[in-house]
Amino acid sequence: MSGQSGKRQTLRHRQIEIEGLSIHAVEGGGSGRPAVLFLHGWPESWAAFEQILLGLAPDRHVVAVDLPGIGDSRNPPPSGDKRTLAKAVRGVIEALGLHDVTLVGHDVGGMIAYACLRICPDALRRAVIMNVAIPAVAPWSEVKGNPHIWHFAFHAIPGLPEKLVAGRQAPYFDYFFETIAARPDAVSPNARKTYAEAYSRPEALRCGFEWYRAFAQDEKDNQRDHGRPVELPVLYLRGEKDPGLELDRYADGLRQAGLRDVTGRIIAGSGHFAPDEQPEAVVAALRDFICAGRDEFGGTSRKYLPANLQA
């Protein structure tokens, strides 16, 4: 990890009260610096970004949160739809006084980042979407129809996943770490234990499944804004071995949806869980993007970086 000094970076934990939600936030770096805010996916917690926070903390204000209802973020949100969750993200930005915000979302967190681009672009400077397809944005229909993505439908069944997974979070989550990570050993036993604990409360497990049950609403929300332009720079990151389609299919889908300035980039040697599998490469990609985002590239769309330019 790169840094400005040899000093050991430390992370600070706090709770943020936002409209009936108690959001657990973990911060590093100086509070007056440009901010990078991280949103985890399923079945993760803020801890998916711990190494990345430490890598960026020397010269940024870095923040990762447990999504509403997960881990130490108590009180479930009123809905699992991504625009409702995006409103909570905006509340975090305002409560912490974050500025020059780079919003980074992995998996479901990437869906929330996309929702933030739609409902509160004024709160952001740029955004990063990682390892995910966006509801109603190409190639969503192909992804949703892939029989290997069986868990989308299973998680959306009311009540049933909770009954079958409760008390078995660790082995159930392990299935995904072993199946769609290129380096399953990179998701360490300690990380797996942390993630399972984040969903150990019945309401937390239900919140995670509610994200999937809200996909139909997410599709409606995103379709309504399809084609409406977003000028902010957006980086789409995907693991080299993440199951799914070619990276440019996802980046082009975002452009077709109205995002005017999209860059795609591959994370070499990574599957779906890039923050755990290749944290240093993710840090390098974020540093490159943040520096480029200072109006050096302008507002034109760009194709993805080829493999020989990977971090």
How would you characterize this protein structure?
- With 311 residues, this protein is α/β, with parallel strands linked by helices.
- The protein has one domain (12-309): 3-Layer(aba) Sandwich (Rossmann fold), CATH 3.40.50.1820.
- It is 40% helix and 17% strand.
- The protein has helices spanning 50-56, 82-96, 108-119, 140-144, 150-156, 160-165, 169-180, 189-198, 202-213, 215-224, 247-257, 274-277, 279-292, and strands spanning 12-18, 21-28, 35-39, 61-65, 102-106, 126-130, 230-239, 259-267.
- An eight-stranded mixed β-sheet has the order 1-2-4-3-5-6-7-8, sandwiched between helices.
- β5 (102-106), α3 (108-119) and β6 form a beta-alpha-beta unit.
- α5 (150-156) packs across α9.
Write the SSE topology.
Blueprint: E1 12-18, E2 21-28, E3 35-39, H1 50-56, E4 61-65, H2 82-96, E5 102-106, H3 108-119, E6 126-130, H4 140-144, H5 150-156, H6 160-165, H7 169-180, H8 189-198, H9 202-213, H10 215-224, E7 230-239, H11 247-257, E8 259-267, H12 274-277, H13 279-292
Descriptive terms for the model:
disordered C terminus, 8 strands, 8-stranded mixed β-sheet, disordered N terminus, globular, 311 residues, Rossmann fold, alpha/beta
